[in-house]
Please model this.
Amino acid sequence: MKQIENWQSFGGEQQIWEHTSDTLNCDMNVAVFVPSKAKTEPCPLLYWLSGLTCTEKNFIEKSGYQRFAEEYGIIVVAPDTSPRGDDVADDDAYDLGKGAGFYVNATLSPWQSHYQMYDYVTLELPKLIADNFNINQKASISGHSMGGHGALMIGLRNPEAFASISAFSAIVAPMQVPWGKKAFSAYLDNNVSEWQKYDSTELLKGLDVPKVPPILIEQGLADQFLAEQLKPEIFESVAKDKGIDLTLNLRESYDHSYYFVATFIGEHFKFHAKFLSDS
Amino acid sequence: MKQIENWQSFGGEQQIWEHTSDTLNCDMNVAVFVPSKAKTEPCPLLYWLSGLTCTEKNFIEKSGYQRFAEEYGIIVVAPDTSPRGDDVADDDAYDLGKGAGFYVNATLSPWQSHYQMYDYVTLELPKLIADNFNINQKASISGHSMGGHGALMIGLRNPEAFASISAFSAIVAPMQVPWGKKAFSAYLDNNVSEWQKYDSTELLKGLDVPKVPPILIEQGLADQFLAEQLKPEIFESVAKDKGIDLTLNLRESYDHSYYFVATFIGEHFKFHAKFLSDS
Model:
Protein backbone atom coordinates (compact mmCIF):
# COMPACT_ATOMS: atom_id res chain seq x y z
CA MET A 1 0.00 0.00 0.00
CA LYS A 2 1.61 3.18 -1.22
CA GLN A 3 0.57 6.73 -0.37
CA ILE A 4 0.28 8.79 -3.55
CA GLU A 5 -1.36 11.96 -2.22
CA ASN A 6 -1.59 13.68 1.16
CA TRP A 7 -3.45 16.95 1.65
CA GLN A 8 -3.74 18.76 4.95
CA SER A 9 -7.45 19.36 5.46
CA PHE A 10 -9.29 20.79 8.47
CA GLY A 11 -6.46 19.68 10.73
CA GLY A 12 -6.46 16.10 9.48
CA GLU A 13 -4.97 14.47 6.41
CA GLN A 14 -6.77 13.63 3.19
CA GLN A 15 -4.70 10.80 1.82
CA ILE A 16 -4.94 8.74 -1.34
CA TRP A 17 -3.36 5.30 -1.41
CA GLU A 18 -2.60 2.93 -4.25
CA HIS A 19 -2.56 -0.82 -3.76
CA THR A 20 -2.75 -4.02 -5.74
CA SER A 21 -6.08 -5.68 -5.10
CA ASP A 22 -6.06 -9.47 -5.13
CA THR A 23 -9.85 -9.48 -5.16
CA LEU A 24 -10.21 -7.18 -8.16
CA ASN A 25 -7.08 -8.40 -9.88
CA CYS A 26 -5.86 -4.85 -10.61
CA ASP A 27 -4.30 -1.78 -9.02
CA MET A 28 -6.74 0.41 -7.09
CA ASN A 29 -6.77 3.84 -5.48
CA VAL A 30 -8.50 4.41 -2.18
CA ALA A 31 -8.98 7.72 -0.37
CA VAL A 32 -8.55 7.77 3.39
CA PHE A 33 -9.12 10.73 5.69
CA VAL A 34 -7.14 10.50 8.90
CA PRO A 35 -8.31 12.90 11.62
CA SER A 36 -5.70 14.34 13.95
CA LYS A 37 -7.22 12.29 16.79
CA ALA A 38 -5.95 9.09 15.14
CA LYS A 39 -2.39 10.12 16.00
CA THR A 40 -3.04 9.40 19.65
CA GLU A 41 -5.97 6.99 19.83
CA PRO A 42 -7.87 4.44 17.75
CA CYS A 43 -10.75 6.00 15.83
CA PRO A 44 -13.98 4.60 14.38
CA LEU A 45 -14.38 4.17 10.67
CA LEU A 46 -16.88 5.36 8.07
CA TYR A 47 -16.95 3.81 4.61
CA TRP A 48 -18.19 6.06 1.83
CA LEU A 49 -19.29 4.48 -1.46
CA SER A 50 -19.63 6.78 -4.46
CA GLY A 51 -22.01 6.73 -7.39
CA LEU A 52 -21.93 6.12 -11.14
CA THR A 53 -18.96 7.63 -13.06
CA CYS A 54 -17.17 8.57 -9.82
CA THR A 55 -13.69 7.66 -8.70
CA GLU A 56 -12.26 7.90 -5.18
CA LYS A 57 -11.92 11.66 -5.75
CA ASN A 58 -15.44 13.03 -6.19
CA PHE A 59 -16.52 12.74 -2.57
CA ILE A 60 -13.25 13.99 -1.14
CA GLU A 61 -13.14 17.03 -3.44
CA LYS A 62 -16.78 18.06 -3.49
CA SER A 63 -18.59 17.19 -0.27
CA GLY A 64 -16.56 19.09 2.31
CA TYR A 65 -16.99 16.12 4.69
CA GLN A 66 -13.49 16.55 6.13
CA ARG A 67 -14.77 19.32 8.44
CA PHE A 68 -16.95 16.75 10.20
CA ALA A 69 -14.61 13.77 10.02
CA GLU A 70 -12.08 15.88 11.92
CA GLU A 71 -14.70 17.25 14.33
CA TYR A 72 -15.97 13.79 15.29
CA GLY A 73 -12.62 11.99 14.96
CA ILE A 74 -13.70 9.51 12.28
CA ILE A 75 -11.41 7.80 9.76
CA VAL A 76 -13.17 7.86 6.38
CA VAL A 77 -12.45 5.33 3.64
CA ALA A 78 -13.67 6.14 0.12
CA PRO A 79 -12.81 3.47 -2.46
CA ASP A 80 -13.14 3.74 -6.22
CA THR A 81 -16.41 2.55 -7.79
CA SER A 82 -15.06 -0.26 -9.98
CA PRO A 83 -11.90 -2.10 -10.95
CA ARG A 84 -9.57 -0.05 -13.15
CA GLY A 85 -6.90 -0.55 -15.78
CA ASP A 86 -6.49 -1.28 -19.47
CA ASP A 87 -7.21 -4.99 -19.17
CA VAL A 88 -10.46 -4.49 -17.25
CA ALA A 89 -13.67 -5.04 -19.26
CA ASP A 90 -15.66 -1.88 -19.94
CA ASP A 91 -18.74 -0.62 -21.75
CA ASP A 92 -19.40 2.64 -23.59
CA ALA A 93 -22.40 3.37 -21.39
CA TYR A 94 -21.81 5.40 -18.21
CA ASP A 95 -23.87 2.95 -16.16
CA LEU A 96 -22.00 -0.27 -16.92
CA GLY A 97 -18.36 -1.30 -16.58
CA LYS A 98 -15.73 1.06 -15.23
CA GLY A 99 -17.17 3.57 -12.79
CA ALA A 100 -20.26 1.37 -12.43
CA GLY A 101 -19.30 -1.69 -10.40
CA PHE A 102 -22.57 -1.66 -8.42
CA TYR A 103 -20.76 -3.28 -5.47
CA VAL A 104 -21.60 -6.83 -6.61
CA ASN A 105 -19.49 -9.91 -7.32
CA ALA A 106 -19.96 -10.47 -11.04
CA THR A 107 -20.55 -14.06 -12.13
CA LEU A 108 -20.83 -13.52 -15.88
CA SER A 109 -18.23 -13.00 -18.59
CA PRO A 110 -16.47 -10.65 -19.41
CA TRP A 111 -16.98 -9.08 -15.96
CA GLN A 112 -16.25 -11.79 -13.44
CA SER A 113 -12.44 -11.68 -13.65
CA HIS A 114 -12.28 -8.16 -12.14
CA TYR A 115 -15.72 -6.98 -11.01
CA GLN A 116 -15.75 -8.39 -7.47
CA MET A 117 -16.58 -5.14 -5.71
CA TYR A 118 -18.67 -6.74 -2.97
CA ASP A 119 -15.77 -8.85 -1.76
CA TYR A 120 -13.38 -5.94 -2.23
CA VAL A 121 -15.39 -3.59 -0.02
CA THR A 122 -16.44 -6.15 2.60
CA LEU A 123 -13.32 -8.32 2.88
CA GLU A 124 -10.14 -6.98 1.33
CA LEU A 125 -10.58 -3.29 2.13
CA PRO A 126 -11.42 -3.72 5.85
CA LYS A 127 -8.31 -5.87 6.29
CA LEU A 128 -6.16 -3.36 4.44
CA ILE A 129 -7.49 -0.51 6.59
CA ALA A 130 -7.12 -2.47 9.82
CA ASP A 131 -3.51 -3.26 8.96
CA ASN A 132 -2.56 0.31 8.11
CA PHE A 133 -4.63 2.74 10.21
CA ASN A 134 -5.31 3.37 13.86
CA ILE A 135 -8.91 2.13 13.98
CA ASN A 136 -11.07 0.88 16.79
CA GLN A 137 -13.79 -1.77 16.43
CA LYS A 138 -16.62 0.48 15.27
CA ALA A 139 -17.62 1.18 11.69
CA SER A 140 -20.51 2.72 9.79
CA ILE A 141 -21.24 3.01 6.09
CA SER A 142 -22.71 5.62 3.76
CA GLY A 143 -22.83 6.46 0.08
CA HIS A 144 -24.45 8.32 -2.79
CA SER A 145 -26.74 7.02 -5.56
CA MET A 146 -25.20 3.71 -6.75
CA GLY A 147 -23.06 4.05 -3.63
CA GLY A 148 -26.20 4.58 -1.56
CA HIS A 149 -27.35 1.22 -2.89
CA GLY A 150 -23.92 -0.15 -1.96
CA ALA A 151 -24.07 1.25 1.57
CA LEU A 152 -27.57 -0.01 2.29
CA MET A 153 -26.98 -3.41 0.70
CA ILE A 154 -23.61 -4.01 2.37
CA GLY A 155 -24.91 -2.66 5.66
CA LEU A 156 -27.95 -4.94 5.60
CA ARG A 157 -25.96 -8.02 4.57
CA ASN A 158 -23.47 -7.39 7.38
CA PRO A 159 -25.56 -5.76 10.09
CA GLU A 160 -23.26 -6.89 12.88
CA ALA A 161 -20.35 -5.07 11.23
CA PHE A 162 -21.94 -1.61 11.12
CA ALA A 163 -23.13 0.67 13.91
CA SER A 164 -25.27 2.70 11.49
CA ILE A 165 -26.08 3.03 7.80
CA SER A 166 -26.87 6.10 5.74
CA ALA A 167 -27.37 7.01 2.11
CA PHE A 168 -27.96 9.96 -0.19
CA SER A 169 -30.16 9.65 -3.28
CA ALA A 170 -29.90 5.88 -3.10
CA ILE A 171 -30.99 3.15 -5.49
CA VAL A 172 -32.96 1.28 -2.83
CA ALA A 173 -34.60 -1.37 -5.02
CA PRO A 174 -32.23 -2.15 -7.91
CA MET A 175 -34.31 -5.15 -9.09
CA GLN A 176 -37.20 -2.79 -9.82
CA VAL A 177 -35.43 0.06 -11.65
CA PRO A 178 -33.60 0.43 -15.00
CA TRP A 179 -30.11 1.09 -13.57
CA GLY A 180 -30.26 -1.99 -11.36
CA LYS A 181 -31.87 -4.27 -13.92
CA LYS A 182 -29.26 -3.36 -16.52
CA ALA A 183 -26.30 -3.86 -14.17
CA PHE A 184 -27.59 -7.05 -12.57
CA SER A 185 -28.44 -8.51 -16.01
CA ALA A 186 -24.90 -7.87 -17.18
CA TYR A 187 -23.00 -8.87 -14.04
CA LEU A 188 -25.15 -11.61 -12.45
CA ASP A 189 -26.71 -14.91 -13.42
CA ASN A 190 -30.36 -14.48 -14.34
CA ASN A 191 -31.53 -15.92 -11.07
CA VAL A 192 -33.88 -14.23 -8.60
CA SER A 193 -32.05 -15.46 -5.53
CA GLU A 194 -28.75 -14.16 -6.90
CA TRP A 195 -30.23 -10.71 -7.57
CA GLN A 196 -31.95 -10.57 -4.18
CA LYS A 197 -28.57 -10.81 -2.44
CA TYR A 198 -27.82 -7.32 -3.76
CA ASP A 199 -31.23 -5.66 -3.40
CA SER A 200 -31.61 -3.64 -0.20
CA THR A 201 -35.37 -3.81 -0.18
CA GLU A 202 -35.33 -7.60 -0.55
CA LEU A 203 -32.63 -7.89 2.09
CA LEU A 204 -34.61 -5.75 4.51
CA LYS A 205 -37.64 -8.01 4.11
CA GLY A 206 -35.61 -11.00 5.26
CA LEU A 207 -33.95 -9.47 8.31
CA ASP A 208 -34.83 -9.80 11.97
CA VAL A 209 -35.70 -6.29 13.13
CA PRO A 210 -33.40 -6.15 16.19
CA LYS A 211 -30.41 -6.86 13.97
CA VAL A 212 -30.90 -3.88 11.67
CA PRO A 213 -28.68 -0.86 12.41
CA PRO A 214 -30.30 2.60 12.45
CA ILE A 215 -30.73 3.89 8.89
CA LEU A 216 -30.80 7.47 7.59
CA ILE A 217 -31.68 8.23 3.95
CA GLU A 218 -31.46 11.71 2.41
CA GLN A 219 -33.40 12.36 -0.77
CA GLY A 220 -33.82 15.54 -2.82
CA LEU A 221 -37.30 16.07 -4.23
CA ALA A 222 -35.95 17.80 -7.35
CA ASP A 223 -33.69 14.81 -8.08
CA GLN A 224 -34.05 13.98 -11.77
CA PHE A 225 -33.67 10.26 -11.01
CA LEU A 226 -36.15 10.12 -8.13
CA ALA A 227 -39.22 8.75 -9.85
CA GLU A 228 -37.58 6.29 -12.24
CA GLN A 229 -34.40 5.03 -10.53
CA LEU A 230 -34.48 5.73 -6.80
CA LYS A 231 -38.02 5.24 -5.45
CA PRO A 232 -37.23 5.50 -1.72
CA GLU A 233 -40.90 4.85 -0.94
CA ILE A 234 -40.40 1.17 -1.82
CA PHE A 235 -37.78 0.79 0.89
CA GLU A 236 -39.64 3.01 3.30
CA SER A 237 -42.79 0.93 2.95
CA VAL A 238 -40.99 -2.30 3.90
CA ALA A 239 -39.22 -0.55 6.77
CA LYS A 240 -42.52 0.80 8.12
CA ASP A 241 -44.21 -2.60 7.88
CA LYS A 242 -41.40 -4.16 9.86
CA GLY A 243 -40.93 -1.32 12.36
CA ILE A 244 -37.37 -0.62 11.27
CA ASP A 245 -35.56 2.46 12.61
CA LEU A 246 -35.45 4.40 9.33
CA THR A 247 -35.33 8.17 8.90
CA LEU A 248 -36.09 9.27 5.36
CA ASN A 249 -35.52 13.00 4.87
CA LEU A 250 -37.19 14.37 1.75
CA ARG A 251 -35.60 17.72 0.85
CA GLU A 252 -37.51 20.13 -1.29
CA SER A 253 -35.67 21.72 -4.24
CA TYR A 254 -32.54 19.57 -3.89
CA ASP A 255 -31.25 17.52 -6.82
CA HIS A 256 -28.92 14.55 -7.28
CA SER A 257 -25.64 16.48 -7.16
CA TYR A 258 -22.80 16.88 -4.72
CA TYR A 259 -24.25 20.30 -3.82
CA PHE A 260 -27.00 18.25 -2.16
CA VAL A 261 -24.52 15.90 -0.49
CA ALA A 262 -22.41 18.85 0.73
CA THR A 263 -25.45 20.51 2.26
CA PHE A 264 -26.44 17.54 4.44
CA ILE A 265 -23.20 15.60 4.92
CA GLY A 266 -22.72 17.25 8.31
CA GLU A 267 -26.02 15.82 9.52
CA HIS A 268 -24.99 12.36 8.39
CA PHE A 269 -21.72 12.58 10.25
CA LYS A 270 -23.59 13.70 13.35
CA PHE A 271 -25.93 10.70 12.94
CA HIS A 272 -23.08 8.21 12.55
CA ALA A 273 -20.99 9.79 15.31
CA LYS A 274 -23.76 9.06 17.79
CA PHE A 275 -23.50 5.32 17.09
CA LEU A 276 -19.75 5.26 16.59
CA SER A 277 -18.91 6.85 19.92
CA ASP A 278 -17.48 4.66 22.64
CA SER A 279 -20.16 5.33 25.19
CA MET B 1 -27.81 37.19 -19.14
CA LYS B 2 -29.03 33.60 -19.23
CA GLN B 3 -29.10 31.17 -16.33
CA ILE B 4 -27.54 27.86 -17.40
CA GLU B 5 -27.29 26.06 -14.04
CA ASN B 6 -29.08 26.32 -10.71
CA TRP B 7 -28.22 24.03 -7.79
CA GLN B 8 -29.91 24.18 -4.42
CA SER B 9 -27.12 24.48 -1.88
CA PHE B 10 -27.28 25.02 1.88
CA GLY B 11 -30.68 26.67 1.50
CA GLY B 12 -29.52 29.11 -1.18
CA GLU B 13 -28.99 28.74 -4.90
CA GLN B 14 -25.69 28.13 -6.67
CA GLN B 15 -26.34 29.56 -10.10
CA ILE B 16 -24.23 29.77 -13.23
CA TRP B 17 -25.02 32.45 -15.80
CA GLU B 18 -23.87 32.94 -19.36
CA HIS B 19 -23.58 36.39 -20.90
CA THR B 20 -21.95 38.15 -23.80
CA SER B 21 -19.21 40.39 -22.48
CA ASP B 22 -18.64 43.62 -24.42
CA THR B 23 -15.41 44.16 -22.52
CA LEU B 24 -13.92 40.76 -23.29
CA ASN B 25 -15.53 40.46 -26.69
CA CYS B 26 -16.72 36.89 -26.05
CA ASP B 27 -19.31 34.83 -24.18
CA MET B 28 -18.55 34.28 -20.51
CA ASN B 29 -19.85 32.16 -17.65
CA VAL B 30 -20.13 33.58 -14.18
CA ALA B 31 -21.13 31.73 -11.02
CA VAL B 32 -23.42 33.51 -8.55
CA PHE B 33 -24.53 32.21 -5.17
CA VAL B 34 -27.81 33.71 -4.03
CA PRO B 35 -28.54 33.20 -0.32
CA SER B 36 -32.16 32.75 0.71
CA LYS B 37 -32.02 36.13 2.46
CA ALA B 38 -31.78 37.85 -0.94
CA LYS B 39 -35.39 36.88 -1.63
CA THR B 40 -36.56 39.40 0.91
CA GLU B 41 -33.82 42.00 1.30
CA PRO B 42 -30.77 43.41 -0.46
CA CYS B 43 -27.58 41.56 0.43
CA PRO B 44 -23.90 42.49 0.34
CA LEU B 45 -21.60 41.07 -2.28
CA LEU B 46 -18.35 39.12 -2.26
CA TYR B 47 -16.30 38.73 -5.41
CA TRP B 48 -14.17 35.60 -5.63
CA LEU B 49 -11.34 35.48 -8.17
CA SER B 50 -9.88 32.07 -8.97
CA GLY B 51 -6.37 30.99 -9.83
CA LEU B 52 -4.44 29.64 -12.81
CA THR B 53 -6.21 26.97 -14.91
CA CYS B 54 -9.51 27.52 -13.08
CA THR B 55 -12.91 28.33 -14.51
CA GLU B 56 -15.95 29.66 -12.63
CA LYS B 57 -16.50 26.11 -11.33
CA ASN B 58 -13.48 25.24 -9.17
CA PHE B 59 -14.35 27.45 -6.23
CA ILE B 60 -18.05 26.62 -6.27
CA GLU B 61 -17.43 22.87 -6.43
CA LYS B 62 -14.47 22.50 -4.10
CA SER B 63 -14.43 25.12 -1.35
CA GLY B 64 -17.76 24.48 0.38
CA TYR B 65 -18.15 28.27 0.79
CA GLN B 66 -21.92 28.11 0.26
CA ARG B 67 -22.40 27.09 3.90
CA PHE B 68 -21.05 30.48 4.97
CA ALA B 69 -22.52 32.59 2.17
CA GLU B 70 -25.94 31.35 3.28
CA GLU B 71 -25.13 31.77 6.98
CA TYR B 72 -24.03 35.39 6.57
CA GLY B 73 -26.43 36.28 3.74
CA ILE B 74 -23.79 37.21 1.18
CA ILE B 75 -24.22 37.07 -2.60
CA VAL B 76 -21.02 35.60 -4.07
CA VAL B 77 -19.87 36.28 -7.62
CA ALA B 78 -17.17 34.01 -9.08
CA PRO B 79 -16.18 34.88 -12.65
CA ASP B 80 -14.06 32.83 -15.00
CA THR B 81 -10.30 33.55 -15.05
CA SER B 82 -9.91 34.65 -18.67
CA PRO B 83 -11.84 35.27 -21.86
CA ARG B 84 -13.01 32.07 -23.58
CA GLY B 85 -13.87 30.80 -27.02
CA ASP B 86 -12.24 29.51 -30.19
CA ASP B 87 -11.24 32.96 -31.45
CA VAL B 88 -9.51 33.96 -28.21
CA ALA B 89 -5.70 33.90 -28.27
CA ASP B 90 -4.12 31.16 -26.18
CA ASP B 91 -0.79 29.62 -25.26
CA ASP B 92 0.23 26.02 -24.59
CA ALA B 93 1.55 26.95 -21.16
CA TYR B 94 -0.85 26.72 -18.20
CA ASP B 95 0.22 30.13 -16.95
CA LEU B 96 -0.50 32.23 -20.03
CA GLY B 97 -3.62 32.73 -22.15
CA LYS B 98 -6.89 30.99 -21.35
CA GLY B 99 -7.27 30.29 -17.64
CA ALA B 100 -4.50 32.81 -16.93
CA GLY B 101 -5.88 36.30 -17.52
CA PHE B 102 -4.11 37.74 -14.46
CA TYR B 103 -6.90 40.32 -14.10
CA VAL B 104 -5.08 42.90 -16.26
CA ASN B 105 -6.06 44.88 -19.36
CA ALA B 106 -3.70 43.56 -22.01
CA THR B 107 -2.12 46.16 -24.27
CA LEU B 108 -0.05 43.87 -26.49
CA SER B 109 -0.97 41.68 -29.45
CA PRO B 110 -2.39 39.03 -29.75
CA TRP B 111 -3.95 39.48 -26.31
CA GLN B 112 -5.44 42.94 -26.24
CA SER B 113 -8.59 42.18 -28.25
CA HIS B 114 -10.01 39.91 -25.53
CA TYR B 115 -7.83 39.97 -22.41
CA GLN B 116 -9.38 42.96 -20.60
CA MET B 117 -10.05 41.17 -17.33
CA TYR B 118 -9.44 44.22 -15.13
CA ASP B 119 -12.20 46.18 -16.80
CA TYR B 120 -14.40 43.12 -16.90
CA VAL B 121 -14.17 42.51 -13.15
CA THR B 122 -14.24 46.16 -12.05
CA LEU B 123 -16.71 47.69 -14.53
CA GLU B 124 -18.82 45.30 -16.56
CA LEU B 125 -19.39 42.63 -13.93
CA PRO B 126 -20.50 44.98 -11.11
CA LYS B 127 -23.05 46.56 -13.45
CA LEU B 128 -24.30 43.17 -14.58
CA ILE B 129 -24.70 42.03 -10.97
CA ALA B 130 -26.36 45.25 -9.86
CA ASP B 131 -28.88 44.96 -12.71
CA ASN B 132 -29.78 41.34 -11.98
CA PHE B 133 -29.43 40.62 -8.26
CA ASN B 134 -30.81 42.00 -5.03
CA ILE B 135 -27.64 43.65 -3.74
CA ASN B 136 -27.03 46.45 -1.29
CA GLN B 137 -24.14 48.92 -1.49
CA LYS B 138 -21.48 46.85 0.25
CA ALA B 139 -18.93 44.62 -1.41
CA SER B 140 -15.74 42.78 -0.52
CA ILE B 141 -13.28 40.80 -2.61
CA SER B 142 -11.26 37.62 -2.20
CA GLY B 143 -9.40 35.10 -4.31
CA HIS B 144 -6.85 32.32 -4.57
CA SER B 145 -3.31 32.36 -6.01
CA MET B 146 -3.53 34.37 -9.27
CA GLY B 147 -6.98 35.32 -8.00
CA GLY B 148 -5.44 36.37 -4.69
CA HIS B 149 -3.29 38.73 -6.72
CA GLY B 150 -6.46 39.88 -8.48
CA ALA B 151 -8.33 40.45 -5.23
CA LEU B 152 -5.52 42.41 -3.57
CA MET B 153 -4.73 44.43 -6.69
CA ILE B 154 -8.34 45.29 -7.52
CA GLY B 155 -9.11 45.97 -3.88
CA LEU B 156 -6.15 48.32 -3.51
CA ARG B 157 -6.87 50.13 -6.78
CA ASN B 158 -10.48 50.65 -5.73
CA PRO B 159 -10.31 50.92 -1.97
CA GLU B 160 -13.53 52.93 -1.74
CA ALA B 161 -15.44 50.12 -3.46
CA PHE B 162 -14.55 47.36 -1.01
CA ALA B 163 -15.28 46.96 2.69
CA SER B 164 -12.55 44.34 3.08
CA ILE B 165 -10.05 42.33 1.07
CA SER B 166 -8.79 38.81 1.54
CA ALA B 167 -6.66 36.30 -0.31
CA PHE B 168 -5.43 32.73 -0.15
CA SER B 169 -1.96 31.75 -1.38
CA ALA B 170 -1.70 35.03 -3.24
CA ILE B 171 0.85 36.33 -5.73
CA VAL B 172 1.46 39.55 -3.79
CA ALA B 173 4.35 40.97 -5.82
CA PRO B 174 3.91 39.86 -9.46
CA MET B 175 6.72 42.12 -10.72
CA GLN B 176 9.19 40.16 -8.58
CA VAL B 177 8.20 36.55 -9.36
CA PRO B 178 8.27 34.29 -12.45
CA TRP B 179 4.48 33.93 -12.89
CA GLY B 180 3.94 37.68 -12.79
CA LYS B 181 6.96 38.58 -14.91
CA LYS B 182 5.91 36.12 -17.60
CA ALA B 183 2.30 37.29 -17.71
CA PHE B 184 3.07 41.00 -17.51
CA SER B 185 5.73 40.66 -20.23
CA ALA B 186 3.21 39.02 -22.54
CA TYR B 187 0.17 41.15 -21.79
CA LEU B 188 1.59 44.59 -20.94
CA ASP B 189 3.92 47.16 -22.46
CA ASN B 190 7.42 46.86 -21.08
CA ASN B 191 6.98 49.88 -18.88
CA VAL B 192 7.48 50.02 -15.13
CA SER B 193 4.56 52.33 -14.50
CA GLU B 194 2.24 50.06 -16.49
CA TRP B 195 3.32 47.00 -14.49
CA GLN B 196 3.05 48.84 -11.18
CA LYS B 197 -0.65 49.41 -11.78
CA TYR B 198 -1.16 45.66 -11.34
CA ASP B 199 1.32 44.94 -8.53
CA SER B 200 -0.30 44.85 -5.08
CA THR B 201 2.93 45.56 -3.25
CA GLU B 202 3.65 48.61 -5.42
CA LEU B 203 0.05 49.79 -5.08
CA LEU B 204 0.19 49.45 -1.31
CA LYS B 205 3.30 51.63 -1.19
CA GLY B 206 1.43 54.46 -2.88
CA LEU B 207 -1.75 54.40 -0.82
CA ASP B 208 -2.81 56.65 2.04
CA VAL B 209 -3.16 54.37 5.05
CA PRO B 210 -6.67 55.44 6.11
CA LYS B 211 -8.01 54.50 2.69
CA VAL B 212 -6.87 50.87 2.78
CA PRO B 213 -9.59 48.34 3.68
CA PRO B 214 -8.74 45.65 6.25
CA ILE B 215 -6.78 42.84 4.61
CA LEU B 216 -6.60 39.14 5.52
CA ILE B 217 -4.12 36.81 3.79
CA GLU B 218 -4.04 33.04 4.32
CA GLN B 219 -0.88 31.18 3.40
CA GLY B 220 0.04 27.51 3.75
CA LEU B 221 3.63 26.87 4.79
CA ALA B 222 3.80 23.63 2.77
CA ASP B 223 2.71 25.50 -0.38
CA GLN B 224 5.00 24.40 -3.20
CA PHE B 225 4.87 27.91 -4.72
CA LEU B 226 5.53 29.82 -1.51
CA ALA B 227 9.22 30.61 -1.85
CA GLU B 228 9.39 31.26 -5.58
CA GLN B 229 6.03 32.72 -6.61
CA LEU B 230 4.10 34.00 -3.60
CA LYS B 231 6.49 35.62 -1.10
CA PRO B 232 3.89 37.13 1.24
CA GLU B 233 6.71 38.62 3.33
CA ILE B 234 7.28 41.24 0.63
CA PHE B 235 3.74 42.54 1.00
CA GLU B 236 3.77 42.13 4.77
CA SER B 237 6.93 44.19 5.08
CA VAL B 238 5.41 47.15 3.23
CA ALA B 239 2.18 46.82 5.23
CA LYS B 240 4.12 46.83 8.50
CA ASP B 241 6.17 49.86 7.51
CA LYS B 242 3.02 51.77 6.69
CA GLY B 243 0.92 50.54 9.62
CA ILE B 244 -1.65 48.86 7.40
CA ASP B 245 -4.35 46.62 8.97
CA LEU B 246 -3.05 43.32 7.57
CA THR B 247 -3.51 39.88 9.10
CA LEU B 248 -1.23 37.28 7.52
CA ASN B 249 -2.03 33.77 8.75
CA LEU B 250 0.76 31.28 8.09
CA ARG B 251 -0.63 27.75 8.33
CA GLU B 252 1.73 24.90 9.01
CA SER B 253 1.41 21.80 6.77
CA TYR B 254 -1.10 23.34 4.36
CA ASP B 255 -0.41 23.45 0.62
CA HIS B 256 -1.69 25.41 -2.37
CA SER B 257 -4.84 23.34 -2.97
CA TYR B 258 -8.55 23.80 -2.50
CA TYR B 259 -8.28 21.55 0.57
CA PHE B 260 -6.48 24.52 2.11
CA VAL B 261 -9.09 26.99 0.86
CA ALA B 262 -11.94 24.78 2.12
CA THR B 263 -10.37 24.56 5.56
CA PHE B 264 -10.19 28.33 6.11
CA ILE B 265 -12.91 29.75 3.85
CA GLY B 266 -15.27 29.97 6.80
CA GLU B 267 -12.88 32.27 8.63
CA HIS B 268 -12.65 34.51 5.58
CA PHE B 269 -16.42 34.77 5.35
CA LYS B 270 -16.55 35.64 9.02
CA PHE B 271 -13.92 38.33 8.42
CA HIS B 272 -15.76 39.85 5.46
CA ALA B 273 -19.18 39.57 7.13
CA LYS B 274 -17.96 41.84 9.93
CA PHE B 275 -17.26 44.64 7.45
CA LEU B 276 -20.21 43.90 5.16
CA SER B 277 -22.83 44.06 7.87
CA ASP B 278 -25.14 47.07 7.95
CA SER B 279 -24.23 48.20 11.42
User: Anything to note?
Assistant: Chain A has ten helices and nine strands. The interface with chain B takes residues 7-11, 14, 61-62, 64, 66-67, 220, 222, 253-255, 257-260, 262-263 of chain A (CB under 8 Å).
